[in-house]
Write a structure and sequence with these properties.
about 40% helix; single chain; globular; Rossmann fold; about 230 residues; 6-stranded parallel sheet; alpha/beta
């Protein structure tokens, strides 16, 4: 069951970055881009496949999800959710050496940052936040980062409440985009998925401005959308 309430760790991070319970529309002097990380900024599918192989599993691309697509390489048994999460946990633990930067994202996000404020909002266990922040900063992506473990809607609503300018949200997961579409107003939605096969499996998403796996195209679209609204 989806929980539309941020957990305490996410709330504390938002507060620490200046997003208090009281609205301050002047916190952002520019439009705001809320940016996912996995498969948008860092590759996830390919390194996750490598982790699975090392653990004796294979990923079969049947649908846009991980649980239900992972199988024991020898027996063909479907992996449990716990086994899938164990593989993801290993990936997050080793992300600074396994999760490489998506092509074009560094120069294009930093170019966008001249016109918009960028905040990373990533769904992952909070314990790996500092590793991820350092990993991104070491590659020239030194933007605020918030880790989240439930629906992204509450955090996005808080961020939007502190910005009197256009707000955009870019994510790889259709469910995240659909939840924001259905539970917020006035946010421009963009779909980005570095892995082309999973991008195809995602299919069209109602209410989303575009779907892409190319950051040059993505930067142009976001800049045009957020600067002309």
């Amino acid at each position: 069951m989806t929980q539309f309430q941020a957990d305490d760790a996410t709330i504390n991070q938002l507060t620490g970055l200046g997003y208090s319970g009281e609205t301050d529309a002047h916190l952002h002097a520019k439009p705001l881009l809320i940016c996912d990380v996995d498969e948008v900024v860092l590759h996830l599918v390919d390194p996750f496949v490598q982790v699975l192989q090392e653990r004796g599993y294979v990923l079969k691309e049947h649908s846009f999800r991980l649980t239900g697509n992972v199988f024991d390489a020898k027996t063909g048994r479907e992996a449990t959710q716990e086994e899938v999460w164990a593989g993801l946990t290993q990936l997050f633990e080793e992300q600074d050496r396994r999760q490489h930067i998506v092509e074009g994202v560094v120069e294009n996000l930093n170019s966008l940052a001249q016109f918009v404020d960028v905040v990373f909002l990533t769904n992952m266990p909070h314990e790996f936040r500092q590793v991820r922040r350092s990993h991104l900063a070491n590659h020239g992506l030194d933007f605020p980062l918030i880790t989240n473990t439930r629906s992204k809607v509450p955090a996005i609503q808080t961020l939007q409440a502190h910005c009197a300018h256009p707000v955009g949200f870019i994510d790889d997961t259709p469910k995240n985009l659909e939840q924001v579409r259905d539970r917020t107003t006035g946010i421009h939605l963009f779909h980005f998925m570095a892995n082309s096969r999973f991008r195809e499996l995602a299919g069209p998403i109602d209410g989303v401005g575009f779907s892409s796996g190319d950051w040059n195209h993505t930067r142009q679209k976001i800049q045009t959308t957020l600067s002309s609204t």
